[in-house]
């Protein structure tokens, strides 16, 4: 049996998305900037996709910009808001994705702005009062950059609350929604987010396609200069196949949102309770009560088998992610696990499910895990 439990890394293309992309590959090749019929057809396709995404977010089409993924949008929000909007201070957290933390390193190294990191507790939650205090005591033009859902431990930040705090303090709010886009509803008319980024391959669309929302009042200037595509904000000939695939994947995610949520949540609950009751000394990272509905970050006790756990899962046909980064052959605890004080002797595995997974797969994973971790309870 092969089991794909790594949907937070990337998701497979849905059949309907493949079909749509094949249709576009077969029927469209024009450059959307060309004024002739081939160009106009391709342009229509891109603008239809923009409408689909804008309407799903309750934003205007003029606020949606196609990118190559969340990394691009996140880099742009941080760097361009310093350059174009006079941001002097960025407040973030140590559990953000590397496309944020490494950009913040660059900002500090080059003295572009001051950067402050909020404390996080052992579940990965920020301290909202600390955020409010920093903003209210600072006279600096500030940008708050906080993700909605953590990619490693699934902890959800309360983005309505953050948006309330940033609005009250006249700060800008950037939210990395790579993990939650397509899983939750966002109404950007009421949620006061200034910048938001999404990535198609996290919601069953193609890799290399994403979008960025930029609130009209805080429009940014380009980071990529050239042919002035995307209304001058992001040059480069549009990835029409990727954009069409993303639009289809987004549309399906919106239509099936509640069903997927309910199904995956119950699958996760089943997996969680079997892990808890059948494996000894298992712990769960993040906040199971306030977590992405598809992520289980399980921490296993140290044993002679644990360093080989990822390899053994792979041999058993199970794809999941280690809660660690592997560099130069040495596994290091991830920056997220380090920030929440996870014991580096223990072994974390992130299992991330989708609506394409089944209970049989969970049963199989449990059976295999029992051969890989010590001191199991006897089960009948
Ligand atoms: C939270 C988060 N932000 C950003 C990214 C980067 O997305 P992309 O690879 O599409 O640029 C990822 C991808 O893993 C992510 O999980």
Structural summary, described in words:
The protein is of the alpha/beta class and 380 residues long. It is built from 11 helices and 15 strands. It has helices at residues 15-27, 37-57, 70-85, 98-109, 128-137, 159-168, 240-255, 257-278, 309-315, 335-339, 359-369; strands spanning 3-4, 64-67, 89-92, 114-117, 142-145, 172-176, 195-199, 210-214, 283-285, 295-300, 318-319, 321-322, 324-327, 330-333, 347-352. The strands form 4 sheets. The chain has a 7-stranded mixed β-sheet, sandwiched between helices. It has a 4-stranded antiparallel β-sheet with strand order 9-10-15-12, with helices on one face. Strands 1-11 form a two-stranded parallel sheet. β3, α4 and β4 (114-117) form a beta-alpha-beta unit.
């Amino acid at each position: 049996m092969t089991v794909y439990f790594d949907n937070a890394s990337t998701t497979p293309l849905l059949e309907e998305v493949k079909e749509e992309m094949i249709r576009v590959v077969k029927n469209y090749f024009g450059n959307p900037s060309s004024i002739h019929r081939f160009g106009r057809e391709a342009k229509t396709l891109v603008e239809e996709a923009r409408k689909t995404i804008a309407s799903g977010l309750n934003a205007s089409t003029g606020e949606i910009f196609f990118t190559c993924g969340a990394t691009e949008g996140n880099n742009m929000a941080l760097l361009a808001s310093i350059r174009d909007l006079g941001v002097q201070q960025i407040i973030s957290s140590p559990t953000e994705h590397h496309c944020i933390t490494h950009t913040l390193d660059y900002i500090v190294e080059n003295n572009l702005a001051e950067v402050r990191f909020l404390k996080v507790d052992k579940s990965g939650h920020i301290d909202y009062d600390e955020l409010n205090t920093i903003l209210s005591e600072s006279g600096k033009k500030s940008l708050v950059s906080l993700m909605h859902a953590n990619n490693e431990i699934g902890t959800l930040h309360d983005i309505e609350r953050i948006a309330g705090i940033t609005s009250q303090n006249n700060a800008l709010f950037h939210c990395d929604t790579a993990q939650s886009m397509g899983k939750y509803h966002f109404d950007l008319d009421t949620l006061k987010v200034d910048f938001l980024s999404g990535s198609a391959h996290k919601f069953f669309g193609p890799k290399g396609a994403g979008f960025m929302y930029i609130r009209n009042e805080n429009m940014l200037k380009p980071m990529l200069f050239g042919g002035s595509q995307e209304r001058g904000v992001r040059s480069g000939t549009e990835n029409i196949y990727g954009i069409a695939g993303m639009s289809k994947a987004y549309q399906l995610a919106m239509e099936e949102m509640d069903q997927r949520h309910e199904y995956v949540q119950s699958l996760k609950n089943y997996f969680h309770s079997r892990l808890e009751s059948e494996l000894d000394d298992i712990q769960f990272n993040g906040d199971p009560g306030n977590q992405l509905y598809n992520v289980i970050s399980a921490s296993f006790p140290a044993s002679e088998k644990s360093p080989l756990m990822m390899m053994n899962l792979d041999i058993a046909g199970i794809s999941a992610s280690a809660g660690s980064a592997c560099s130069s052959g040495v596994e290091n605890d991830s920056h997220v696990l380090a920030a929440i004080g996870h014991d580096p002797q223990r072994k974390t595995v992130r299992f991330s499910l989708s609506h394409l997974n089944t209970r049989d797969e969970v049963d199989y994973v449990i059976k295999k895990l029992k051969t890989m971790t010590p001191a199991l309870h006897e089960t009948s």
